[in-house]
Amino acid sequence: MLQLAVFLLVVALLAGLLGFGGLAGSFIGLAKIVFFVFLILAVLSFFGGNVFRRRYFWQ
């Protein structure tokens, strides 16, 4: 997912350099959304993984 965010950012930068401002803005918006979804899922995975390990493997 992080790779997708970086890819969208690179495409946005290339579109901006070539003069496609509207398209670049759209790709920047998509990159932000994907990045924040990645952050939320990473945090949930981190905390969820710790709860799972404590409950089933420490008994």
Fold topology:
Elements: H1 2-18, H2 21-57
Helix pairs in contact: 1-2
Describe the structure.
With 59 residues, the chain is mainly α. It has one domain. Helix content is 92%, strand content 0%. The protein contains two helices and no strands. The chain has helices at residues 2-18, 21-57. The radius of gyration is 17 Å and the shape is rod-shaped. 7% of the residues are buried. The model has no long low-confidence stretch (mean pLDDT 85).
Structural class call reads: mainly alpha
Count of alpha/pi helices: 2
The average pLDDT score comes to 85
Specify the helix fraction band: over 70%
How would you characterize the largest beta sheet? none
Query: How far do the termini sit from each other?
Result: 34 Å
Silhouette? rod-shaped
Spans of 5+ residues with little confidence (pLDDT < 50)?
none
In short:
Helices cover 92% and strands 0% of the residues. The chain is mainly α. It has one domain (2-52).
Question: Which structural traits does this protein have?
Answer:
mainly alpha, 59 residues, 92% helix, 2 helices
